[in-house]
Specification:
Strand content: 25-35%
Distance between the termini: 45 Å
Strand order of the largest sheet: 6-7-8-3-9-10
Largest sheet: 6 strands, mixed
Structural class: alpha/beta
CATH topology: Rossmann fold
CATH superfamily: P-loop containing nucleotide triphosphate hydrolases
Number of domains: 1
CATH architecture: 3-Layer(aba) Sandwich
Bound molecules: adenosine-5'-triphosphate, magnesium ion
Order of helices and strands: EEEHEEHEHHHEHEHEEHEEH
Number of strands: 12
Radius of gyration: 19 Å
Number of helices: 9
CATH class: Alpha Beta
Amino acid sequence: MSSIAVHVQGLHMAYNQLQVLKGVDFDVETGSIFALLGSNGAGKTTIIKILTTLLQQDAGFASVNGFDVAAMPNRVRESISLTGQFAAVDDMLTGRENLRMIARLRHLAQPRQVADDLLQRFGLTDAADRRVSTYSGGMRRRLDIAMSLVGNVPVLFLDEPTTGLDPEARIAVWTMIKTLAADGVTVFLTTQYLEEAEQLADRIAILHEGTIIANDTLAELKKRFPPAEVEYVEKQRSLEEIFLSMIGTKERS
Ligand SMILES: Nc1ncnc2c1ncn2[C@@H]1O[C@H](COP(=O)(O)OP(=O)(O)OP(=O)(O)O)[C@@H](O)[C@H]1O
Ligand SMILES: [Mg+2]
């Protein structure tokens, strides 16, 4: 039997008059990769903030790693790590110092070793002793994700993990995410790149106008939208076409 790492039921959230979440429900299985899709402003980051205890919901229930986010925020924080939509690295420190700082904050026994291993895995060894202010966008993003991996947490939240990365760096991050999931880490990610969801996700959920309007495997989503018949050639629908038809947007040609 599979266990549930993230459980969300009837989640509501408003910012003043703006009702962003209007009853959001979904579950994420332990060790799976779950991709949350939605247009800009749909509320993806809002859901991540609630699940990572940065924001408290107006109504509804959410638990992470079995802990109620509203009632046991400290237990949730011990179970997770978050790479936010905007990088959380300290510009004035070097890459190595950033990693060691997190390792110390997480009370790890060997912060040096942990930092060195992550620098190696993310191809940052050569740049390890340079200030982050001199890093390229892709290097900062890699460091940011490396920082979220300090301490082997069971649930990882990645808010648009590859935005701004070049194709090579993006593929490196994908490989890393797949490896983590294979090791049993639950990965919750949001993305604007539908190809990213196609590549990675065991399940894909679409958030639209405050609720989840689809939550399925890619294969199931494709079944719901049969191939378009173009004369004699059957063309398999891309996730992008499925997404756009679900949210009711006219396809851009
Ligand atoms: N602190 C806030 N105060 C007021 N409104 C907010 C606040 N944070 C978010 N919003 C609004 O709530 C809506 C959802 O925002 P959110 O950041 O969750 O969307 P998103 O799906 O992550 O978008 P994006 O794809 O652009 O990252 C948006 O309309 C946004 O302007
Ligand atoms: Mg966002």
